[in-house]
Amino acid sequence: MKNKLYFKLKNKKVQEEAFDAICEEQKTVGYYSLPEQDISSILSYGESISDAIENIAVIGIGGSSLGAKAVYEFIKPVRKLKRKLYFFESTDPINITNLLSKINLDKTHFLVISKSGTTVETFAIYKYI
Fold it and tell me: Is residue 11 situated within a structural domain?
């Protein structure tokens, strides 16, 4: 297999501007510092969830829910989990209704995830529920 670039990197100024833009983004976008982030407040929050809660409903679109789903699917076969996770990732009312039929709302904790905080589809699902 041969690796090949299909665009030319001859323009040094474009390269420098792209590098500078990435460095600037690194200062403001939170996920670059995730490996060093203090998660004690997250762990404390998780421990505060009542034992009566049987389900976690994750509401998010695309990358907002994919990370949680990937970790859940990876861990699920090898570890006994305290709660079942349900992923509301589509605005399709049939999909939402199907998922809702599987859970008791009184025994479900909802996590609404939106990186921007303004994802219309995420809030549409939340409002529908």
Answer: no
